[in-house]
């Protein structure tokens, strides 16, 4: 371990964890002074090809309120066959099966390289995965056709033993029975009526009348059988369902001029949730909602059916002019919570040119770990491939999805957990390691992740609780254990345990060390998550102000400067990029709503709080590659100065992939030089970014919007809106220089931002 | 019970005759049942009597018919009676009536009754004659001859009306019976070759008994006895005794005279009526006799009779003789008939009755008939058996009497005692007005097509087949009035109490030889209407000022003629184009309605039919689901259409349901139907639009696939609960969504107890019957359905309900929507696929196919002076004038009551115009106009002369049946009796010539009012038997509500047809609905409009059985068969033809029920013998007539 860089990288690879600080200040006071909290990005199911799961149960600390898992940090007395818990210091005997243990014969969990280890637990019956399609039929014919094909295709991708169900809705909600031969049978619900779960189950015939003549025992199997009418193993109803989907018609109710189709999304979801709730509580299930427009009737209605009244905009929301917003949001939240309690996740695939109400519905996915995919049409590769990728498989041939995850955090006593930010809900488990100070979803040390995949990443925030006057002994280490139980896609129940430790450092004497242990990338993402989390409930400017203040405080803490002399301000290497991240974060759609619809904002935020560090960074500060005859492709500054006529730029914002041909290149291309054999190199130049883009497209989920444009093209705005506006119509000094393109904006440039930052950092008044 | 039967049966086993004997006992057995005592008596009788009876029975049964046939066929018959006439004065009476009628009809009713001037009176007298012997004679000169015979009777009546009656009939019966003996032999030869002679012999031996037998034979006696005792006539018992004696004698004489009096032609009709009556009469008397007989008569039988009535006695003797003689004459007649089995029997029977006395044979037959009566003396041959049986029976009967007090039936029991003296002698049924006689008279009278041009002309009876020529008034098939001469003032109307009403059947189906109403298209201007009252252009509009204006016949307002409608007038003031325009020359026609007449001013969409099928456990198990689905496949090709060449534009939709509803998407583009389950029954909605209502041809494949699969899908269902309200809501919503009118066909099995709107609970409570709370049982249980009905009507959603209940389903509540929407309710209790399938399918087929109009509004406009004030039927009314019908089919009739609000003038008469605006099955908006003009009179006599009793009964029934939901049933019955009494009393007081107060005088046109009214009073609705469920009553109640006159007629007075002899081309003459008329050796077909019975006597000839059932053995007849086996013999063919033709006449398919004499099912059959006392306590005709007489007398005094 030579540098922190490598250490960080190694830790991430092994444990899927990135801490903001890799040395921890030894007291609460010092910790608060560091501005960026001790926190980490944790990817519970990070793919570890080199980590074969062990086939036995973890050994737990016997203390009732500890239950920590035996790990390499524990002290072991091989002779006495006793181990000491490193969290509560309880001494535990090994279980009988560990009788043969010795220094040379250690179980995997004691080996340092297995700081992350996965157990396969044989407990309880394995429940099949469940996929419940909830399909909007108020679509254009073309869209519906495409969607039908995608759905049919998906059947071949599902695990063969998975249960699958279908609910369609428009003005009415139909729950399709899948077992019937001949006549396709479905249960219909009125799209305007809010039904309780009990009513829904009764109406679907899932509850038998309370035991008149029925003994207690037969009820259960019957119930299962009853629900099976709607949820059937894929291999059995493959044909049926294919036919069913094939015959799916557009919602037949007439839509008169000037009206939106009546879309009962709210009731459809309520029925879906109610169905699963009644039939398969606490089993991994995925509700996949496909919508082509906003809910227009019944509970959860986002907008009325009058086209002359447009769907709410940020403007309306700020003016408190969105009639249905609160009610709908509340409705969907309630649904999301119910769903989360039962361990079912909800995906939203929204494809429409206008908004579809993601703002109101986002919690469905956010709380349950579901995906949100937003596109223009179901008839686009964006949707088709994204949807396909939901069912992608890992190197083992297992689906990259897990269900019913519960992540528990255990800490050594100097540290407490404040909260987590990510696609999870609190399980309200108040352990001894729970801090009273909440950050994100706090007040618990257990979170439920109804659905998670290898890239699902949580931000977990901690608090050092050690008092300043009782310092941690030098050389001591703080430890944190993540215990994640989940249902693997092959229906196995698994427990993954990650135990990590970091050294304590005295902030007074070792501030340099601490500074150098700063992981500015992780810190930027973690701070950004906090910001986004706040943005959900606070006004945008307040969040920005908070972010700014944090940044300034950090700079004041770690910057080297002379008071009142901005020019003297310097930051060490480990913090040098951090302000720039913040600059771009401030401009990002996660915090800026200008130019974004409420739906888009919700969509971006949704993905931001669940992606791993790399992806998150891309979202904060897009990557810009430049292709030219002058050399190999190189990353260039995300700056307007990078926009040059003889270059091809490839920008990856995570959500978009923009290829922008410089002015000259575009002209050449138009002239057809690439067709000429003598300009083979030009052809290759044109091809290079396409190939790279393809590579990104192949791996990214959700698939980004792919934009191929040229300088001056309308789509070039995606690029122009992201680059640092170092040249604008306001600072014409750049004109005439060979310095890229001016951006027509009043936004401040990075330069200005930094100037202000320096000024404020060195100012003694702030 | 069993034991008695058992014994008789042995008899069967024996010779061919055995059947007769056995048969008789068997049939009576039911009666015997009560009297265990009978057994002993019976057995001995059985053996001894066996032979004789057998012989006679055949004779007797046939006899009745024979009489008819004779009259018709054989002149001989006529003459013989003539000769006998003198001998049988008594008999004459009954016949006279018949004759009178017959003749009367020919000339005119008044004429009939002899006294030309007081036509009415005469008729009355005729009827009354019997009652008051003395006066009548005087009154009816013409009748004098008969009177001679009558006198005795009259005397009897005078003494005690009842007694007199009884006397009258008996003679008649005796007479007929006598003739039969002769014929009897003949008949016997064929049927019972051996027996005949013996029968005669036995009779001879005990002549007196024979006569009695006949009387007694008439089964009725026993019943009558029963009725009497309980009935108002407290004295019945005594009467019976007395009459018994007298009766036998009189009957004989009377019948004969009747014959003579009646001209041949006349006689025929008369005979039918007469003879039967006579026969019956004899029976009825018998009953009485029996009672008496048991006492002293048997041996003294003859003497006593004579003693009782000197006159009679003589006749008796004479008769007896005549019989012997007669036989020969008759024989001659009969023989030929004999050749033809049926006819012979008929003839015989006829003869026999006359011959009764002499020929034991006749008595024999009667004996069987009236075994109970078979009093010792009377029934020689049979007597023993019968007598024994009867005697015993009677004893038990008294017991019955107790249980069923006759009095309850009548408002006032008291009267009974009064007649005590009379009681001694019972009325002879043959002497009282006979419906059959009247019907036959009318048939004979009607030879010409009925032209509607003459104002105030009463049409032929509904039982008569006739052709109608529309010459300005609506055909009686569309409109029938209670009175064709309305009183000018309300005072008159009030005084007479005759209801002024019209029964309108706006879309009635016309026979193929009559042209359907013309459709008039006035283009965009629409029909021409009066400016003030909005009456439509019709023949009553008077064009004035050279044709530029017209004056409304209803309100006298003068309206400009629209320019495009102008036409010049000819010299008579008629428009030149008068005969080119249906609306100026016809009583019935249609206008094409313009868009102004459409809902929302929008041309209506074609209607839709939605089939909603219960698929709960019961429905599946009973096979209903399977049947419906199977049937629908072919039925969909038969949807109504106006042009047979075209495909129907009616769209169809399907729903199944139990606790939840299943809608089906059968869009033509689908490979398979889709089922949409709606469980949210509390808030019904239609889950789909496109694909629910489809064109049959386009979606045929899918629909067939659906219908194939529905039974399979629910084959294993275990759901027993059903909903009902949401089902109709679903259909309604579907129609709303499609923005069209239509009809729902709901196939439902059980009380809707599942949690849903319109949920019901079982509230049937037999204890409430007879209490003031009884009415609540006819009211809907919840208000939900009333509101739903209102919504349905607003949308033009007509609901037809097919019920398949296994228990109480609350028809009163479930029927609310169908009734309010102009729909029908069909009920198949304990539905079993095997036996009820045919009936249900036929009903369904017809219901689907029949012409129907939707979203209809009917408005009846009348000339100033009267006003339509009340409406009865299946419809809904939002205001007091517009009758709204979501659906109106060709079987629905609406009874409209009129009241005066001013004076009418004799000159202009009273006009009414019924306009029905409806959407035809092709989606065309039309107006059907029926115009009707009747006379107005200032003389009550005119009113009474131009009444139609059948229509009055229709009104009364509907009025009463509606009333039971708001008033105690008893009050309703009392009201009926009172009104009837007032009508008759008013006549007596104002129109009849003075006569003794003891004389019952009935208007000719209303002489059947008592008997029919009694039938109404005895209906299950007004007088439920112990086994009649609330559902049945409610069902009948709503069913009657929309019946037309023909339907109510046959419903209240079933059509009873002897089918021993059948000729192609003509039907045998019907019999009166009394057990006395049935012969043990006969087979009878009875039609009630809802049921069809084939009653098989226990002693029916093997050959006949072979012909009909294909089995020679009575015991091998399967009582569960619902259709006769198809046998290749003329008789079987003809019988089936007749059955088919009966069915074709009725809107509902009548299931055939084979009733074997003495079988369990006979009780059901007997319920429809409406002239007899009913098991539930209803009075017999005779009793009721007496009661009515008493009421009238009270009113008059």
From TrEMBL, chain A:
Residue ranges of every copy of the Zinc finger Sec23/Sec24-type domain listed in the record: 58-98
Membrane-related topology note: Peripheral membrane protein
Residues covered by the Sec23/Sec24 trunk domain: 127-391
GO CC terms: COPII vesicle coat; cytosol; endoplasmic reticulum exit site; endoplasmic reticulum membrane
An example molecular function term from Gene Ontology annotations: GTPase activator activity
Any one biological process term the GO annotation gives: intracellular protein transport
Family: Belongs to the SEC23/SEC24 family. SEC23 subfamily.
Protein name: Protein transport protein SEC23
Native organism: Crenichthys baileyi (White River springfish)
Lineage: Eukaryota, Metazoa, Chordata, Craniata, Vertebrata
Automatic annotation (TrEMBL), chain B:
Zinc finger Sec23/Sec24-type domain ranges (all copies): 527-565
Biased segments, Low complexity type: 1-38, 134-146, 155-167, 201-218, 225-247, 396-413
Biased composition (Polar residues): 63-75, 120-133, 342-351
Domain Sec23/Sec24 helical per the UniProt entry, residue ranges: 949-1048
Membrane topology: Peripheral membrane protein
Residues covered by the Gelsolin-like domain: 1068-1139
Pfam families membership: Gelsolin, Sec23_BS, Sec23_helical, Sec23_trunk, zf-Sec23_Sec24
Gene Ontology cellular-component annotations: COPII vesicle coat; cytosol; endoplasmic reticulum exit site; endoplasmic reticulum membrane
Stretches assigned to the Sec23/Sec24 beta-sandwich domain: 853-936
A single GO molecular function term of this UniProt record: SNARE binding
Keywords assigned: Cytoplasmic vesicle, Protein transport, Transport
Disordered: annotated segments: 1-434
Family the entry assigns: Belongs to the SEC23/SEC24 family. SEC24 subfamily.
The protein, known as: Protein transport protein Sec24C
Source organism: Crenichthys baileyi
Highest classification ranks of the organism: Eukaryota, Metazoa, Chordata, Craniata, Vertebrata
Recorded name of the encoding gene: SEC24C
